[in-house]
Amino acid sequence: MGKGQSKPSLLDQPWRNLPEDNQEDLTFVKDYEPRNQGANHLRILLHGPVGAGKSSFINSVDCALQGRIAGRAPTDATTSTSFTKKYKTYKILKGQDDFYSFIFNDTMGFEKETNTGVLEEDVKLVLEGHVEDGYKFSPSQKLMEGDKGYRSAPTLDDKVHVLVCVLPADKVSLTSDEVVKKMREVRITASDMGIPQLAILTKVDEACPETKEDIKDVYRSKYLKEQVDKFSKLLGLPQDCIFLVKNYGTDPIMNDDNDVVILNALRQMITFGDDFLNNP
Asked: Residue 43: enclosing H or E segment and its boundaries?
């Protein structure tokens, strides 16, 4: 390819602009406090199929904010079933004794088979704040009022304020109809509750060689744009609510350009969630 020629797999102009650096988004995240004084934090729920990168995204946010590799949310690269079994809350340390004003919740992944993976009914209960931290999901029995782990009177802090669907960028077309149905069921419930929703497509470096070479090209990739289009039609989310990220994990070296992509997605999650918190 001659000098000055663009790669045929990349668009001449990005279909979404990213900040030049991460400073503005980093400052926004560090300074964020819920406008609703009745809330102590903003709760972000991640959901999606097994192996999508939900736990890895939590770790990646932790990395970007700490400025070092972190791995508090357990992950496993070898299992074909959900490594996350419990409803788990993650706070990210800010300084010595303080935490950021947003928290993540990780769930067991959706699976194709009926008696495996998290039940969509349990994820709906999570949205409403009825599931206590540490509850172990059962693929065969949904949580009921009176069960251990069921919270009968959730507060605003217990409820989910923004829902984020997570899916690998190279698996959009391979997602089973059964898993899509479960994700749509959760999405409809969240919509009925007024909870804002976004999505992240992970593993962009595995899906697109140009992005693996330079993460700054993530929103110039023709292939990744096609996957966003497909995912938008699959789940019904607007394209401007779908973000592309490369999680830390395969490459244990901090990268400022990678932080830009992660923090840009995180800022939008916080913005959407705070709008909901301010008008629940």
From this structure: strand 42-47
Residue bearing tokens 């090209």: 217
Residue 111: partners with Cβ closer than 8 Å, 6 or more residues away: 49, 50, 81, 82, 117, 139, 179
Q: Give the confidence band of 70 by pLDDT, cuts at 50, 70, 90.
A: confident
- For the chain, domain boundaries: 43-278
Task: Note whether 280 and 265 are within 8 A (CB).
Answer: no
CA angle 157, 162, 164 (to 5 degrees): 135
The Cα–Cα gap between 176 and 154 comes to 33
The DSSP code for 201 is: E
> 208-228: per-residue pLDDT in tens?
999 999 999 999 999 999 999
- Give residues with Cβ within 8 angstroms of 267, minimum separation 6: 25, 28, 29
Question: What is the CATH number that goes with domain 43-278?
Answer: 3.40.50.300
For residues 235-242, give the mean pLDDT.
Answer: 95
| CB 93 within 8 Å of CB 101 | no
Residue 80: Cβ-neighbour burial (10 angstroms; 0-12, 13-18, 19+) = exposed
Closest CA to 163 of 133, 199, 130: 199
